[in-house]
Give the backbone structure.
Amino acid sequence: MAEKSQQLIIDALQRAASAGGGVALFSGRNLPGLFAASAPGKKAAQHCKEQGYLRVLRTENKGKASWEVCAISEKGLAFLLAEQSPKLVLEALVRAVDEQRSRIDDVAVLLQATQEHLDGLRAAAEHALKQIQQPQAAPPPSAPVNNSNGKPAPSFAADLLERLQQWHDAGALGDCPLSHLQRNLVEKHPHTSIGQFHDVLRQLSENEKIYLHPWTGPMYEIPEPRLALMIGHEIAWYVSLR
């Protein structure tokens, strides 16, 4: 194989070994990839697939476009070790494994938070059913955010809206991440739990005071999974004023 094509393959396999979680086979607009979508790149990519240096993890689709996400195979790693310094290759592989393990831990935290959210919904539904079956009982009061003493903190919702207004007035690009909003609120409301923070967000959304926007990237890339908010079948991560 020509020297230039050989170098394209080595560079691509190095990126694949360093990524760990898979990389698009071809790069595109705002999409990093293993090979450029040029004639030499396509030829080198085809050679890697034929030789079994790469394995396809999945195919992703967005509109009419689709692309293969690939990872280095054992055969590809053996080829790379033969062509490059084994020490450098293996160090990059160890870093990739550690990074993926960290992402898996973050996903586990998010799944745990989702499970707690679902358990809370189930408990609320069961409580509501009991109230329906006993119409003579007084309806439960709305649940405002409480401090550590169980006393209402009605100013929390107003402060949340004020922080959002400050975000927009500052000319910030995009919608406000929940992590930024929560950090700004916790100074004034140190006893407010994440669950209470989420309850107020849901209430303000239902009252058409704010918009909740979903996280659109991979779940393992959410910066602080514990602050993500489950809304229906989506994970909300951004918020803006209506």
User: Anything to note?
Assistant: Helices lie at 3-19, 39-51, 74-83, 86-133, 155-169, 178-186, 194-206. The longest helix spans residues 86-133. The chain has two domains: 3-84, 103-241. Residues 3-84 form a domain with the Arc Repressor Mutant, subunit A fold (CATH 1.10.10).
